[in-house]
Design brief:
CATH architecture of chain B: Alpha-Beta Complex
Oligomer: heterodimer
CATH topology of chain B: Sufe protein. Chain: A
Helix content of chain B: 40-55%
CATH class of chain B: Alpha Beta
CATH architecture of the largest domain in chain A: 3-Layer(aba) Sandwich
Helix content of chain A: 25-40%
Largest interface: A-B, 18 and 15 residues
Structural class of chain A: alpha/beta
CATH topology of the largest domain in chain A: Aspartate Aminotransferase, domain 2
Structural class of chain B: alpha+beta
Largest sheet of chain B: 3 strands, antiparallel
Shape of chain B: globular
Chain lengths: 412, 138
């Protein structure tokens, strides 16, 4: 189906009305926001809910006997249930609120890491974000474990032919990204989880880039942990989710100590609270949690399969148009890809192109996208990345292509 | 021409551009004109690693005046380097150490010198100022 047909069926124009930040000019030009891989814009409902929470319901949760505390607690816990339903977790206490993806991964690296011993192996992939590399390196240093890296091919896909040498009897955890932030590659999670299960390893999926674009079902994926950030899924910054299987989470020691995570404290011995509180020490980001729930309520009303198809049609169209320029090379050409178009132009530095596009009102990302080892693999300093969301349109891509034309002419 | 007069000259040159793209067109031309540091001389001690672009800087001092040669892998960064070098070249360490590089703000390019921009320029200015301070102490 052509992008115009999908666009008509999907009606992105109507959806745009829900996102006030899209309707503005920068440097006197209409803003075109193609940096959705970094963060998504917020629908009015989410913006209103932040204002409403602080105007009316602000209170600390879980402890107060007074009215406002109960209102805030109910909303916070309802948000947890909304997210539980959305990602199809079996229990609401499997949904832990975190600061974001990075925080979730660090929690597992710490708590699950405590169960590891010298010589145990953790397997990641060559396309991971620094957030899914560095916490494991730190853990490996602490526990004398070994980090294994599944290689990728020139298309930016995992090389699965030699997978059995990367997921072995020694593997205790497989931590891979669902979708590459730099390349858009969608990884074969089902295959990988089966492999990891066959050797008794636990599985962590970095869902930072997938939650915005596709239907996520944690039970179907059969992962032990699934982490994502709220701000990438139209919610506030500073809040995220770590899904963990109840049985697994119950078996792990807590991450941080403090209020809310305890059952009873004496100077001799402290016992810990039940899930999810065991992993949520201190006053949480209450407004963030509630408003993330609102973001998921907003998404619930949309057809994620239609969204994915629409976003991919945008990416395909952008890719076709970009390839008409001499010297453009798409980085990441996996068969299974989401709406990320990463590219380089021969003889032009990504920073220069990004700067000129910015001055024409177009927000793209340039640089290594926090995936330096991946850039080393492709032997490039970085890429220009256009990442689309469901509120982007074909018309915006046409403007982007015109701006590209002007920029390339100036820089060549 | 004093350091500040050179700044003023640049500010006036940029006054004719009211469109951002024209302004950048000019910066790109400056970048293309700036003499390059040859690849063999781009040694690690000259390298200033930025997140977005890389900068190489060589400093020299003769007759109490400082000279700078700089390069970047990004042409816009290089153009801005050209402006900085034009203002600071052949000035005394004292004038360089105390220089208020107001022209950057006045021509609207201050975003490029912000430490958070991470294109190597803020670090380059810092390194220039430090080498001027060191020259003062020597």
């Amino acid at each position: 189906m052509k992008v115009t047909e999908v666009q008509r069926a999907f009606n992105a124009e109507e959806i745009r009305n829900d996102f006030p930040s899209l309707d503005q000019t920068v440097y006197g030009k209409k803003l075109i926001y193609f940096d959705n891989g970094a963060t998504a814009q917020k629908p009015q409902a989410v913006i209103d809910s932040i204002s409403h929470y602080y105007s009316k319901d602000n209170s600390n949760i879980h402890r107060g006997v007074h009215y406002l505390s109960q209102v805030a607690t109910t909303q916070y816990e309802n948000a947890r249930k909304t997210i539980q339903t959305y990602i199809n977790a079996a229990h609401s206490e499997e949904v832990l609120f975190t600061k974001g993806t990075t925080d979730g991964i660090n929690l597992i690296a710490h708590s699950f890491g405590e169960t590891l011993k010298e010589g145990d192996e953790i397997t990641i992939s060559a396309m991971e974000h620094h957030s899914n590399i560095v916490p494991w390196q730190m853990l490996c240093e602490r526990k004398k474990c070994i980090l294994r890296v599944i290689p990728i091919n020139e298309k930016g896909e995992l090389v699965l032919t030699s997978i059995d040498s990367y997921i072995t009897e020694k593997t205790k955890l497989l931590a891979v990204t669902h979708i590459s932030n730099s390349l858009g590659t969608i990884n074969p999670i089902e295959f990988l989880t089966k492999k990891a299960r066959s050797v008794g390893a636990k599985i962590l999926i970095d869902g930072a880039q997938s939650i915005q674009h596709m239907r996520v079902d944690v039970q179907e994926m059969d992962c032990d942990f699934f982490v994502f950030s709220g701000h990438k899924v139209f919610g506030p910054t500073g809040i995220g989710v770590l899904y963990g299987k109840k049985k697994v989470l119950d078996s792990l020691p807590p991450y941080q100590g403090g209020g809310d995570m305890i059952a009873k404290v004496t100077f001799e011995k402290t016992t810990y609270n039940e899930l999810p509180h065991k992993f949520e020490a201190g006053t949480p980001h209450i407004a963030g949690g509630i408003c993330l729930g609102v973001a998921f309520k907003y998404l619930e009303k949309l057809d994620m399969d239609a969204i994915m198809k629409y976003e991919q049609s945008l990416a395909n169209y952008a890719q076709e148009q970009l390839l008409k320029f001499e010297g453009v090379k798409i980085i990441g050409t996996a068969d299974q890809k989401t709406s990320v178009v990463s590219f380089v132009v021969e003889g032009i530095h990504p920073f220069d192109l990004g700067t000129l596009l910015d001055k024409q009102g177009i927000a793209v990302r340039t640089g290594h996208h926090c995936t330096q080892p991946l850039m080393d693999f492709f032997e490039i300093p970085g890429t220009i990345r256009a990442s689309f969301a469901f509120y982007n349109t074909k018309e915006e891509i046409d403007i982007f292509i015109k701006a590209m034309d002007r920029s390339i002419n100036m820089l060549k | 021409m004093t350091l500040d007069q050179k700044q003023q000259e640049i500010v006036e040159e940029f006054e004719i551009y009211d469109d951002w793209m024209d302004k950048y067109e000019y910066i790109i031309e400056l970048g293309k004109d700036l003499p390059m540091i040859s690849e063999s001389e781009k040694t690690d001690d000259k390298l200033i690693e930025g997140c977005q672009s890389r900068v190489w800087l060589a400093t020299n001092i003769s007759d109490g005046k400082m000279q700078f040669t700089a390069d970047s892998d990004a042409i816009i960064t290089k153009g801005i380097i050209g402006l900085l070098v034009r203002v600071l070249n052949n000035e005394s360490p004292r004038d360089i150490a105390t220089a208020d590089l107001r022209f950057i703000q006045e021509i609207g390019l201050h975003e490029h010198l912000s430490p958070t921009r991470s294109n190597g320029l803020a670090s380059m200015v810092k390194r220039i100022k430090l080498s001027a301070l060191k020259a003062l102490q020597d």
